[in-house]
Design a protein that fits this description.
Blueprint lengths: L1 H6 L3 H18 L7 H12 L2 H13 L6 H4 L10
Helix pairs in contact: 3-4
């Protein structure tokens, strides 16, 4: 039981993830299991449309400590849902 508790993400991180996924559904009509960063990263790299590339630059700037944050947030095994 104790090993299971150690693997769980911290509460605030999980809460942030839920908020992010909810905004993805609410604002972008995205899949409920994906984050805004992952969706923007996927769209920027697959479509090369200016709006997605700009959104990616803005989000990457916000998460400056994570190099290429949006690209790293893509869940490639579930990319068909983007």
């Amino acid at each position: 039981m104790e090993d299971k508790m150690k693997k769980k993400k911290p509460y605030l991180k999980r809460l942030g993830l839920v908020f992010d996924q909810g905004l993805n559904v609410l604002l972008l009509n995205g899949h409920e299991d994906h984050t805004i960063s992952g969706r923007v990263g996927y769209k920027a790299h697959t479509t090369k449309l200016k709006r997605w590339l700009i959104a990616e630059m803005v989000i990457n700037a916000i998460f400056f400590w994570d190099d290429d944050h949006c690209y790293n947030s893509i869940e490639w095994d579930r990319a068909s849902y983007y």
